[in-house]
Task: inverse folding
């Protein structure tokens, strides 16, 4: 038993008391879920309304997260768990008054880049702060260079709002709202999202007070301690069930101008799990750097997914996962380095952590690598939005749109990977109709990318292929923030890599995976998203499953033969004798074509 365990208050001994605390805990979870759904339903931008790129949670007066909504992303939720400590450092709880609300988009004290606003609202009962509601969402624009990695400092990336009052005594800071309105390209959407953040916190505030009334509580101190201690002890139990030891794993990201090395050392100890990113690449000159808060958020999520997925995510369970990265690392980028697209590398971190755990738990006990980073279509057009002569944009419609899309996840233990699914972010793909209704972008096709999932006994999930153009005879700008173009997701235990991503114009001109690029007038753009890696020898995959994949267009007949060793007849049924002979021949040759 650690000293921390000795200092932990004993759990409730009375059965009715334990039941009562569990009922209140469940009620608290319903409060934060309604909070998040209110944000999604009132949000103005597609990232909030359609993709669910948000977070919502309740915190105690010490700034500890005690409940988070399932609706939301780990990058927002887990970094918000740290952000609230920064809020109360600037504005101590004792100084807060009813009607006060606080806001920031500070990348180092918030969620990693300027495009995310976090709003904190204190919850009062009998003129006393008893808890706090917080929420975060990604806004469509924050000024500056836009959502891309070209910036060389944070000053180029947009409007920086330090932790400050958003409302004071119930009055909105109109000066701040005017500054936001005048510094972004989509003021209605951005300001609308800020009001949505305030609104969802108000709902959480109302429901929380109703909960206190219903359970005849003056505060939640006992409930908070119960939640945090129970979760911490459950997380420790899960960690102590693992074999102690240390493992290493590394991965390469495409980077912007140079490949980026991500190296991790994971240590399993009796009092927690430590992940150290020493040995990773130094910071980049471009906006792919990751503030530590975002590194911590996604690395912790990778541990949590594998070690204790059923333990609630809160300050207690996060407390025993310790993340560190050197200050001269791309994963702990100091102010004022550019960080606009910190998600590209940050969302690869769970794969790195899972890679470490594969050496402890076994390569077939964890998922293979997936696309992991999002493959969002970020497009803009009109005056000032495209790097061409103004005359070419004389009649062009001005627009700025971001549509969320995903490649495939890696194969899972005993299961295929998920196709066109955002892991680890968990955001939803945006329907094409929404993108087309908000911009002149026309999506000609959107379908699974055949053969993109890495072959294996358990196949990787498939990426997507999208073909897009503009309905106007005008050029538009693509802001490419993609990875896994040069370094595809890797398979495990004999499983093959997923296909790398690719961007290509209709005239076969390839585009870069990162950076702003002009799509000429009348030209089509094809976006080929990566697939996840496979697990296990492909020739061990059930032939009937291969045939099913062929019939559904997931695997081509050629790859069924060359990668899986499965022979199909003219009706796409398995020829068992021919398959047996072919697989035997592949085994004797010791190679796969």
Result:
């Amino acid at each position: 038993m650690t000293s921390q365990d000795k200092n932990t208050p004993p759990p409730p001994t009375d059965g009715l008391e334990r039941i009562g605390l569990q009922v209140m805990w469940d009620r608290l979870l319903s409060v934060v879920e309604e909070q998040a759904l209110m944000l999604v339903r009132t949000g103005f931008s597609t990232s909030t309304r359609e993709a669910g790129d948000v977070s919502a949670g309740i915190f105690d007066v010490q700034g500890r997260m005690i409940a988070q909504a399932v609706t939301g992303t780990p990058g927002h939720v887990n970094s918000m768990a740290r952000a609230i400590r920064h809020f109360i450092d600037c504005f101590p709880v004792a100084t807060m008054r009813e009607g006060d609300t606080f806001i920031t988009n500070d990348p180092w004290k918030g969620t990693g880049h300027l495009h995310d606003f976090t709003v904190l609202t204190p919850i009062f009962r009998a003129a006393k702060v008893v808890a706090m509601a917080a929420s975060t969402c990604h806004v469509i624009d924050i000024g500056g260079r836009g959502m891309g990695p070209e910036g060389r400092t944070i000053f180029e990336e947009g409007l920086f709002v330090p932790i400050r009052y958003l409302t004071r005594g119930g009055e909105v800071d109109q000066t701040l709202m005017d500054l936001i309105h005048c510094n972004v390209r989509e003021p209605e959407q951005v300001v609308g999202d800020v009001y949505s953040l305030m609104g969802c916190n108000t709902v959480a505030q109302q429901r929380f007070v109703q909960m206190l009334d219903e359970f005849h509580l003056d505060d939640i101190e006992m409930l908070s301690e119960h939640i945090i201690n129970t979760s911490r002890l459950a997380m420790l139990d899960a960690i102590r069930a693992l074999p102690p030891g240390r493992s290493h794993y590394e991965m390469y990201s495409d980077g912007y101008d140079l490949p980026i090395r991500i190296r991790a050392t994971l240590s399993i100890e009796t009092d927690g799990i430590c992940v150290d990113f020493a040995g990773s690449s130094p910071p980049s000159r471009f906006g792919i750097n990751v503030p530590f808060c975002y590194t911590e958020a996604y690395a912790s999520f990778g541990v949590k997914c594998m070690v204790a997925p059923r333990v609630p995510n809160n300050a207690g369970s996060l407390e025993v996962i310790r993340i560190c990265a050197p200050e001269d690392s791309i994963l702990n980028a100091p102010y004022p380095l550019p960080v606009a697209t910190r998600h590209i590398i940050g969302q690869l971190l769970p794969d790195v952590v899972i890679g470490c755990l594969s050496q402890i738990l076994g390569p077939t006990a964890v998922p293979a690598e997936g696309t992991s980073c999002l493959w969002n279509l970020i497009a803009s057009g009109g005056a000032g939005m495209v790097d061409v002569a103004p005359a070419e944009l004389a009649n062009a419609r001005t627009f700025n749109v971001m549509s969320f899309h995903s490649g495939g996840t890696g194969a899972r233990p005993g299961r295929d990977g998920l196709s066109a699914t955002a892991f680890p972010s968990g955001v939803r793909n945006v329907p094409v109709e929404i993108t087309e209704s908000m911009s002149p972008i026309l999506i000609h096709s959107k379908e699974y990318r055949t053969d993109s999932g890495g072959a294996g006994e358990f196949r990787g999930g498939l990426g997507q292929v999208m073909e897009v153009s503009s309905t106007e005879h005008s050029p538009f700008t693509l802001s490419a923030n993609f990875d896994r173009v040069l370094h595809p997701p890797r398979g495990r235990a004999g499983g093959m890599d997923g296909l790398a991503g690719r961007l290509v114009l209709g005239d076969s001109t390839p585009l870069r995976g990162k950076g702003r690029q002009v799509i000429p007038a009348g030209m089509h753009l094809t976006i080929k998203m990566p697939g996840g890696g496979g697990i296990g020898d492909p020739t061990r995959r059930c032939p009937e499953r291969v045939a099913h994949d062929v019939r559904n267009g997931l695997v081509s007949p050629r790859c069924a033969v060359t990668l899986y060793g499965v022979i199909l007849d003219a009706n796409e049924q398995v020829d068992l004798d021919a398959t047996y002979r072919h697989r035997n021949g592949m085994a004797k040759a010791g190679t796969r074509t």
Remarks:
- The chain has 15 helices and 19 strands.
